[in-house]
Amino acid sequence: MRERTIASHFVRAALRGAVRQGLDCTPLLRQAGIQPALLDEPRARIAPQQFARLLQLLWERLDDEYLGCGRLRSRRGTFAMMCHAIIHCRSLGKALARGALFYGLFPGAPSIRLSREGDWVRLSIEDAHLWDPDHFLLECLLVIWHRLGSWLIGQRIRLEEVSFAYTAPAHVGEYELLFPGRRRFDAASSGLLFHARYLAMPLLQDERTLKQFLQHSPADLLARPDGGDSLGGQIRRLLGRDCARWADLDAIARQLHMSPQTLRRHLREEGASFQELKDQLRRDLAIYQLGRAELSIQQIAEQLGFSEPSAFHRAFKKWTGLTPGAYRAQEH
């Protein structure tokens, strides 16, 4: 959903390498439509388009696709050249292997390795040489390789597990959007585990579709959250955008062919509840609408199902740390 929003943590993390190099990031934030004061509020969130724009501006300004987190720069165009190197491969397995070899040519680059584990294959990324205190670049690389592979074969690669060679970070609640499925921390390596059958699948893309893909990638790969196969993602899609017509838990359970008790249990296993999912969807829809001038705050409150604007004000401040009026003022 385009209304998915991105936590301000990722904005601060994306800027850290640039700030470390002494770059004044305020003009870049303003160019991306992000008011710098928004970063002082830990609960604030931004639209995906703003985040994608910020990444593009950082890449241009730094001439570094590693955003200042690598030992050496990865000059702009490196990712595009890697894509041109793999686009004519006959299968996903050969494309991933060639991509790993390509990045292996650069000293100090994160090492990418493919290894078979029975019926499974693991794509591991070694980031020991990076300056990446937030694990931001590693998160980016894992997301990019997953979504690039899915794009190449024209279908979403279902992840069996995503492992991380570090303890669960403070922003772990955001990982469901980045890495749907099982997540394991304090692992021996960071990487993606998926079924080996995908490796034999042919590439459905070519030079023509690659040209279009590279107009916005990899920024849009990172800015587009992925609910994937998670139960939370399925429920968000079933609820939709019209809050006044949202189904209750019993109706959603019927659509998912399970009992309400089973639905609640599965949500608990994902660390969520039905009410939390509705609140998150309301929050994201509110941020999406506040970024546009079409509706007044009162109209947005009504559209989101609040009986009065004051209730919307209280809820929005609880979600983001800002009132709707203050958030809209930051946006414009």
UniProtKB/TrEMBL annotation:
Keyword DNA-binding carried by entry: yes
Gene3D superfamilies per the UniProt record, alphabetical: Homeodomain-like (1.10.10.60)
Location of the HTH araC/xylS-type domain: 233-330
Domain of life: Bacteria
Protein keywords: DNA-binding, Transcription, Transcription regulation
Entry-linked PANTHER family: HTH-TYPE TRANSCRIPTIONAL REGULATOR GADX (PTHR47894), HTH-TYPE TRANSCRIPTIONAL REGULATOR VQSM (PTHR47894:SF1)
Name of this chain's protein: AraC family transcriptional regulator
Organism: Pseudomonas lalucatii
